[in-house]
Structures are given as structure tokens and as C-alpha cells.
Description:
The protein is 57% helix and 3% strand. The protein is mainly α and 364 residues long. It is elongated and about 130 Å long. The relative contact order is 0.15. Mean pLDDT is 86; it is low at 1-11.
Amino acid sequence: MPADHAPTRPLPTSGGSGTRPLPATPPVLPPTPSGAPYPPAAPPPPAPYPPAGTYPPGASHPPAPQPAPRPFPTVEADGPSTASRVVAAVVAALAVACAWLVWRFFVDTFAGQMLERAAFDGAVTGQGELWAVAKPVLDTVSVAFVVGGLGAAMGIALLRRRWGLAVQVAFLVVGANVTTQLVKHSLLGREELIGGWHWENSLPSGHTTVAGSVAAALLLVVPRAARPLVAVLGGAYTAATGVSTLVGQWHRPSDVVAAVLVVLAWAALVCAFTPRSALDPGAGASPGSTVMAVLLLLGAGAAGVAAALALRATPATWDTTAAQEVTAYAGGVAGVLAVTAAAFAVLLLVRQSTARPDARPVRR
């Protein structure tokens, strides 16, 4: 009876007494339900080969993939970048130089004193109506206002845990106001050059310095996102105080302009020495601040052109008409607006740049 499976007994070999196994028989599959034969098994897919010419010379296989290089990690330095500190220091030096130039021309030359004499006399026009608005603005400026404004600025800094920033704004407010008093009463004088119009030296304006220093201190301490708005409001209040002193004939335009420059010099100086505790952690670019600064500078440019045209139209003599004196007065107001807008635009940019931590790549 035939077996139903392959024999498994060894068979003799032709070359000796050894044995060899019989060839294996493929397994018998059960019939398909339809009786059709099974389809042939599909061969395995060929292994992918890279395009010709991609192997390195002499290699029989593709090179192993290399991991992508990792960028060096960055860390925040101990303060602002050196470039931002240098820019702040340069701004402070330029503000001091511009303040001296204002004194040199408008106080220390015949033409300058004549132009400001015309602006001073022109303030009489419409003074009654304007004084009703200017007087309340000037009444807010006092020693109590300085103490309260400085206390508010330092309080905001302490609430935000910016200990170094609280010290910064104290130096700013105290330094600016002490400088104004020293310059006005001790360092600079006023020689009588035009005759018949004696006036003690009043450059810089103390009221404008108070208003500007408190506004600048608040600009430094508020959060980063709020600084553009504070720059506009602080600049507007400073300009309103300065113009009010012109309305009341308390000061001449050069006094107000010099006061704004004193504030800018001190604010930029303290920004140049910004400590780590006064930084904005994780701060990036500030497009809103840039846009606001550009708008302020555009306004300053327009006002500056108006001031230059008004001064050019005013003769530097005693023989000026009422219209020319009003023109000189309007030019002085425009000059105050121009310098104040430019100063707070620059201070906004300086503060944002020096408040940004300096992130540098570090090799490990």
C-alpha cells in the first residue's frame, strides 16, 4: 500500500556507507473552495537603490545618514547689549551739546536775544484767554508733585520687582532737577546784549524740567507694551507745561527747550547703565514702539520746519511789528513742540533697546 507521505528512512549513497536525506516534499495545501489552483506567491519587492552615481567612490552601499547640526543654545547676558548702551550714552552727550548750543545762540548772542524778545512780547496777544488754560497746568507743578510723581514711578518699579529700575528713576528725577537749578543759578549767566530789556538767566525752565522728568520716569517703569502710549501722554504733558510758561511770560522758548534736553540727557544716561533687574525678560522686537516713535519724529519735523520759518521771518531788531512778534511767539511754541516730540520719541527707542536682554549663542 503506497504511503501518503515521503519516506524518511535513509538511503545508501554511492560513495560509501553513509546516508543522505531524501529531498523535502512541499506541503500539500487543501483545495480551494472553488477548486481553482492557488495563485503563485508574489516575489518580495526589491530593495530600493539610490540613483546611479550617488555612492561615494569605492563604496558598495549608500552612506549612513548624518544627523542635522544643532544650533548653539542662547543665553541671556547680564544686561543690555553693548551697542544699545553706547547709543544711549551718545544720545545723552548729544542732548547736553544741544542744550549748550541753545544757550549759546539764544542767550549769548545779540540776534538770539532779539528773537526771543520778540517772542516774549508776542505772548501778550490773547494772553487772557490762554492763561485761563495755562494757569491750572502750571499750578500742578510743585514740590509735592515731584515727590508724588517720583514715588509713583518707584512704586510701579517695586511692584514689578524691578529693584534697579527704582534706583534708575530716582537718579533721573533728582539729577535732572538739580542740574536745572545749578545751570540756571550757578553755571550759566545772561549778559545784557540788546539794552533796555534786562532779565535774569532763566535757562533751563524749572517747571518744564519737573514735568518732563516725572513723565520720563513713568516711561521707564511701565511695562513694555504700555511705553508707546506713555511716551505720547508724557510728551504732551511736558509740552503743555512748557508752552504754559510761555503764555504766562514766565520763560522764553529757549528755557523750555533746554529743560527738555536736560531731561533727555539724564534719562538716556540712566538707560546706558541699565542693570539686569531693570530688563524685560524674553523681550523681542517692538514694532509698536517703532511706529509710534516714527510718528512722533514726523510731527517733530513738521513743527521744526514751522519754527524755522517763523524765526526766519522775524527781524532781529527792535523795530518789529505786532504781527512779527506774534509770528516769533508761534515759532517759539512750534520749537517747543518739535523738541519735546523728538526727545520722547528718542527716549522711547532708547528705553526699549536697553530693556531688551542681550541673547548670545554659547558653545558647549
